[in-house]
Amino acid sequence: MLTQNLRQGTSAHACFVRRHHRGVRPDGMYNAVVQDAKMEILAWMEIPVYTAIAYSSWLVLWLVWLPGYFTSKRTVDRPERGKQLVALFFIYAGFALIFSHGGFGSFLGIRVTPQMHLLGQIGLGLDLVGILFAIWARLTLGRNWSNVMALKEKHELVQTGPYGIVRHPIYTGMLLGVLGTAMTTGLLASYLGFICVLIGLLIRTQSEDRLMARQFPETHPSYRQRTKKLIPLIW
User: Fold this and answer.
1) Of residues 29 and 134, which shows the higher confidence score?
2) What's the predicted TM-score (pTM) here?
3) In the chain, domain spans
4) Rounded CA gap, 179 and 181, in Å?
5) Which one, of 36, 49, 65, lies nearest residue 135 by Cα?
6) What is the tens place of the pLDDT at every residue in 132-185?
7) Taking the domain 48-226, which CATH number applies?
8) 73: Cβ contacts below 8 Å, ≥ 6 apart
C-alpha cells in the first residue's frame, strides 16, 4: 500500500513538473516566429507569375555582369568617389525596395496600380526589353565596363551599337527594367524603388559625362551632340 502511494505521489509530482515546465517554455514566442515565417513564405508564393519572371530576369542580368568583375581592364582612376557612394546608396536602396515586394511594412505594401493581367504583361514586356537592351550594351562595352564609375587602362569611348543611340544604354535598360518590374507588382515599395534607382543613375550619368569629356576632349563633344543621354531622340 505504501509503495503504491509513493508511486502515485511520484507520478503526480512528475506530471506537475511537466506541466510547470510547459508553462514557462517560450512556446508562445516560438509559435509567433513560426507563424510569421509561414506568412512570409505564403506571401512570396503568392507573387504573380509576371513578377516572378521579372525578378528572374534580373538574375540573368547579374550573371551576364559577373564575368566582368574578373575580365575588365585594370582601373587607373575612380573620380568623385563621394558622389558615387551616394549614387550606390540610392541604387541599392531602390533594388531593396523593389525586391522586398512590400515586405518592409504595411505602408510600403499599398497597391498603387491594380493587379491585372494587362498591366502585368505590359510591365513584363518593358522589363524584358530593358534587360535585353542593358545586356546588349554591356557586351558592346566589353572590357571597358566597370560596376562603378572608373577610368580603365587604355579606355575607349565606345560609340557603336546601343551607344550610338544613347550615351548610357545600360542605365536606360535598367530604368526600363525597374519600371516594368514595378508595374508587375503594382506596390508602392516598387515605385519608390524606381525613383531611388532613377536618382542614383542620374548622379552617375552626370559624373560619367564629365569624366568622358575630360578623357576624350576631341571626340566626346561631337559624340554628345549626336546622341541623347538616356531616352532616344528625347533626352
Assistant:
1) 134
2) 0.76
3) 1-46, 48-226
4) 5
5) 65
6) 999 999 999 888 888 777 777 788 888 999 999 999 999 999 999 999 999 999
7) 1.20.120.1630
8) 143, 144, 152, 153, 154, 155
